[in-house]
Design brief:
A hairpin with a 2-residue loop joins strand 9 and strand 10 (254-259). This protein has eleven helices and ten strands. A seven-stranded mixed barrel has the order 1-2-3-4-5-7-6. Strands 8-9-10 form a three-stranded antiparallel sheet. The protein has helices at residues 3-21, 63-67, 103-107, 119-122, 143-162, 196-203, 220-233, 299-308, 310-315, 327-345, 347-355, and strands at 55-61, 77-84, 90-99, 113-116, 134-136, 169-178, 183-193, 206-208, 246-251, 254-259. It starts with a helix and ends in a 7-residue tail after the last helix. Helix 7 (220-233) packs across helix 8.
């Protein structure tokens, strides 16, 4: 284990021990910093993530202004979300938004967005308990780009099927309105995804921002599950040590990697997605296992988990949300998954393409 991660885990452990050993007192103590408050207790997810039917929203912001915000520290802009409540009355919730991302920010007409809700504005609304979630938008205003967004949304659902250590997401049919002109722009599907603090609160974990994690720093089973999931969806656009499309969470004395951002995955297969030129693949549909080599043998248990969840994963492409995909796209995705499960079914292939292909083998 690298020294900086060991130090971090020791701090987590010492905070837990200090809390357990502290004598009881009636004296009111000042609130401790978050990292000094001992073990985190899992909480229920925000209400928006407890249902699955698509929301119907109107998102109003000055899009001309927002599209110009391409710097590293973009300003927060005023915006609103509106929706009809159960009685048919329109509810309007003010919030702040700003652009985010790297590739999409530079290449998309509709930028990816970070939302920022104020607690007092979301009480008794569908956005209750949200803080700064992501709004994942269509990149460009066409049916093809919308289908790619729906395919990426499906991969979040697949990940949720395999582990609670994954971002929840809620689909929405969103009417986009420019506040500068009061004119509608378009209506497309998008989705709201948990931010890392919301995820951490739900699973009782602490986000870790330190780069440089290696295989020995991570929970071995969760590392393998992470890597095999990325192999299932054909995604190579990530780096644990560089925290690229990966978040790390401290849970007790373990560190768990969690994936996000799947539009470069082979299971989505956008026209713009290309693998890193340093990798030995030419197309994103070609699978390449990039999981780190681990100690022990967690592979059989992880493989069993994927096999056990296969029917549940496939069912996601046949339910009401999966049917939003064009039939041919859903069919192609399941055929792509068939190739993965055929690899798992053959011990020789699983050993060759997954176990022996891990990164860091001496």
């Amino acid at each position: 284990m690298t020294s900086r991660f060991l130090a971090l885990l020791l701090l987590l452990g010492l905070a837990t021990a200090a809390r357990a050993q502290a004598p009881e007192t009636k004296e009111k103590k000042p609130k401790k910093a978050k990292e000094e408050q001992g073990p985190l207790v899992p909480h229920d997810p925000a209400p928006i993530f407890t249902a699955r039917e698509p929301l119907t929203l109107t998102f109003t912001v000055n899009f001309r202004q927002l599209r110009r915000d391409k710097g590293e520290n973009p300003p927060w802009r005023s915006a609103t979300f509106s929706y009809a409540d159960s009685s048919g009355q329109t509810v309007t919730v003010p919030l702040k938004v700003r652009t985010r991302g790297i590739w999409r920010l530079k290449n998309c007409d509709t930028p990816p967005i970070r939302l920022n809700f104020a607690k007092e504005d979301t009480k008794q609304t569908i956005f209750a308990k949200l803080d700064k979630p992501k709004l994942v938008t269509h990149c460009r205003d066409s049916g093809e780009y919308e289908q790619w967004l729906l395919q990426e949304f499906q991969l979040y659902r697949v990940y949720n099927t395999l582990t609670p250590y994954s971002h929840r997401a809620r689909l929405a049919r969103i009417a986009y309105v420019d506040s500068g002109s009061n004119k509608p722009i378009t209506t497309r599907y998008g989705f709201i995804a948990e931010d890392r603090e919301e995820l951490g609160s739900r699973v009782g974990a602490m986000p870790i921002e330190q780069k440089g994690a290696g295989a020995n720093d991570l929970d071995q089973r969760e590392m393998v599950l992470f890597g095999v999931f990325q192999y299932l969806i054909g995604n190579t656009d990530w780096s644990i040590s560089g925290l690229h499309n990966v978040e790390l969470f401290g849970i007790d004395t373990s560190v768990v990697p969690i994936a996000y951002d799947f539009d470069f995955a082979g299971a989505v297969a956008t026209r713009y997605a290309t693998p890193d030129s340093r990798l030995p693949i030419k197309r994103v549909r070609e699978r390449l296992y990039r999981g780190l080599c681990v100690t022990g043998d967690p592979y059989p248990a992880v493989f069993d988990l994927f096999r056990a969840r296969k029917d549940s994963i496939y069912a996601l492409y046949r339910d009401d949300l999966g049917k939003l995909l064009e039939p041919d796209r859903a069919k192609e995705t399941l055929e792509y998954f068939d190739e993965f499960f055929a690899t798992l079914a053959d011990p020789r292939l699983a050993k060759r393409y997954i176990i022996d292909a891990c990164l860091g083998r001496g």
